[in-house]
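The data layer described in this paper is built around a simple, fixed record for each protein. Because each token names a local backbone shape, the row as a whole describes the fold. We quote a single record here, exactly as it is kept in our systems:

***
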Amino acid sequence: MTKEKFISSLLFIVFLTPAVFAQSARPAATTVAVEQSKPAAPQAISAFPIASLYSWQIRPNDMDGYFSSDIPQPVCGLAGGTGKIFIFSNFSYYPSKNFHNHSNAVRVGQITPPADSYQLLSSNVAGDIHSLPGLRQEFATTSILRSGDANHTIYLFGGKTPYTELDEVYSYTPTGGFSPTPVATIPARNGIAGKRSGAVAVPGLGKIYLFGGQQGGNTVLNQILEFDPATNSFTNRVLPPMPQGFHWARGMTKAVGTNNFIYLVGGKTTAYGAPNDLIYRFDVQTGVTKVVMSLANPSTPLTIPSGSGYPMITWDPSGNIRIIAASGNGASGVWTWGNIQAWILNDNYPGSPNDGRATLTPAPYNDATRARDMAGAVKCGDSTYLIGGTYGHGTTFQNRGMLVDKLGGQTFAPVKTTTMIRIPGKGQ
């Protein structure tokens, strides 16, 4: 039995929110484009150890200085013309709070590249626009640049209280904070209620896609819903179900030509189970989700090595798809982590005879002092950030939820001339 499956079998009551790591995407004809597909960086310069990362510890500001376990959910978005990372969390963690404490409002922290200063935007007082009151965990968060807007809008979908799942959708902007009331509700469809927790939201071609989730503590959904931020409503587009129902996955978008492909990792196919090792690819244009297969053995799914922690997925500084996960036992054995492993995913797309077949190239981060699981990963500007996480389970283990690692563009390849978000007339 792998460490992660062993941990999950003992801690089946622990609720973990997926950190969603996506880029806003629109067709070429609209006002915003995403970074296009490009060849992978040479392997010789992609496999740097963690010593080449710029590593730092954020300044603690209230207890939101800790990003651990059920959090963080970082997204990147334009705010006042500057790309910033917004981190959504909902509870105080180590060292003074119990491991399962979820009693705070949803609050927002901010990292501003390239200086990477941290600021807690929420004051957690009555009427604070940067705090969403009430018990809420396992929500899905993503950002998108709506047509005509100068700043990104961030959406928060569903979630749960200790007693029930939620079907609410809130919006958030850096200047306006949270919408005072839900802007939409997740609809019931095909006999499936809208309330859900543990879903993952990812943008593509101007829409947001809500994948999976869980209901009632034991029902895992294979449903995909399409949300239109232009109207703040779910569309009537009926998408084929996913190959498997899952919850707590993490996702990102990759633009290939005029189409977008969404990658999903770490899905749990059973309630409170361990994350599976598969990689899923959703074609935004056709609405079809496939399991990514191995290029070396086309009849076999491409899998993340067994025994890894909860995987994260995002862009790396060179424009490749990067999957990151904890691995190996730490100093305290099965309950702690020894290092962070990573891989570059190289996939083939429609038009290629190897469509849907891919490889994983190791790109290890070996540093036992910064090893942690359940972190968040996001690309903002020319750098990728690994935010928070936890060294082990329970308050008796060392917390590493204040750690932030930064992979700069010069670490893996020459600095790109474009950032994650490209504005017409500015390097597009």
Summary: Residues 86 and 110 are 5 Å apart (CA to CA).
